[in-house]
Write a structure and sequence with these properties.
Layout: H1 3-10, H2 17-36, H3 42-60, H4 64-77, E1 79-83, E2 86-91
Antiparallel strand pairs: 1-2
Amino acid sequence: MSVFQNKFAKGFNVNDIYKEFCFIYGELSEACEAYLKKKDDLGEELADVALYLIGLSELLGINLEEEIVCKMEKNEKRIYENKNGVLTKVKE
């Protein structure tokens, strides 16, 4: 069962894109708090972030795996330099 199918079956939001972005933001905030407070549920919070992100990409018809691979290939070609303590992209 896909993340989208699970959301649909459980009656969760499957049509309000803005709301999904808000949920991702909230889950990321919870993961950050778990990290800062050294809570035991950090992994679970990160899983929530991933699930919401995967669900959103399914909702939008975006193949997230393909996008990640393409982005990693693009990032491999980039060159960065440390300029006055700031890592700056110098070549695309």
